[in-house]
Amino acid sequence: MSIHQLAPVHWQMGQTLLPEHLLAQENAIAGEARLRHLTNGLPSYGISKLCWDSHLLSKGNLKIDVLRLFTRHQHQLVDFPGNADIVSLPLEFNANSRAEVFYCVLQDSSQPSDAIATPHQSALKKRLFKIIISLKPNLTEELSGFTDNHKVIEHGKLAEFVQDQHQCWRLSERFIPPLTQVGFTEFLKAPLNQLNVLLTRYLEEVHQLYQQQQLPEIRRFEIKHCVNNLSQSLQYLANHLGKEKTKGEVNFHPYFLYEQLQTLNRNLSLLESDWAVPLIQNYRHDDLHDTFKIIFRNIIAHLKLRNRNNRSFELQLKDGCYQTALPTTLSLRDNLYLIVNNDRLEKLLDSHLPCISSYSRMPTLFQYALNGVALRPVKHHSSTHYFGDNAQCYELIKGEELTHIVNDRSIAFLAQPEFEDFTFYLFHQPEMPAGVTHATAE
Q1: This model's pTM is above 0.90
Q2: Residues 409-435: pLDDT tens digits?
Q3: Which of 58, 157, 228, 318 would you label with 98, given CA atoms 20 to 30 Å apart?
Q4: 165 and 106 share a domain?
């Protein structure tokens, strides 16, 4: 094989035209186009467009209608139904509540052969990629025969699907493959829609709040500056998602979305007078789920619990415990609530509720199998308004364990497998709010 694969073919009058000449010219043109595309500096491999039959999916059958991707190594465009065929049958999910779907792209490796001249353009033989969609990462015996005259040029995980509480299948938010565009797939659509709604409401509330307050002119200018930046983020989301009945027409690389979300998070922190140095996190194209999960959680935490008289603290998983430090002004007269954020998931069962105490008390609770602070389910107007009806709210009852929490200025509980899909917040209120009524325990 020549090392000069990008060099164009040298043509001469009267030379014999062979298929190899056309293939070499094709490879040179395609290779130059790939290198030009790579000079933009962004990862250029991954899923660009993915559509399926949503009705069949809800019943547990996956039928791909459109799939467009760029391969990792050669950055070749694979487009179904443009230059590729899906040769596997539609998938049927089994009884498990979670299904992982994989894809494999094969390229024809046969040598050029003599062709029969035909005057019909529609009868020209095309070289198509073959795509296999499977529930297993490796090719099954039924499909392994394709490797006789094809070579595998790309394989990976396409998506995860889960069953909701109504036994309907939907896309899981726990996995996102590498993407080259945001908007042509279902990935990231749900959190972006949620963010769009919350940010719109947040801007309205901030405008009403500060319009009624007599603030120093310099502080008012700072707030207006931050609100202006937040409006820019809202405009960015509108370009992606659309506005009212108008569909969004801008579909950027996920890196640009990530940078916009980082800017939004910093502006929200400044608006809340939080001068803490933000955690620097690099964009990771091969781990988009974790990359966006952290930034989405930080932003939504700002937007959902923004009352100036209240403070919320997300319990971070560290050293086998969900934990967070508490303010030094905390006292036993304050009201503390555990909020279990479970968007689109079943509720956390009462039997699975965590055993909560201060961080220093964790070894004692584990050794003596203590119950921790008592939790009482309540209906809280703030948690319902900001987190939705599925959010669970529990009041921390005063007692010995709560005293340890206040004195130690920390709260923690041991991690369990049941907590993996949930986010936990401690909601701190200096006084008993009027909108809290005790719920009847089931």
Answers
A1: no
A2: 999 999 998 888 888 888 887 654 444
A3: 318
A4: yes
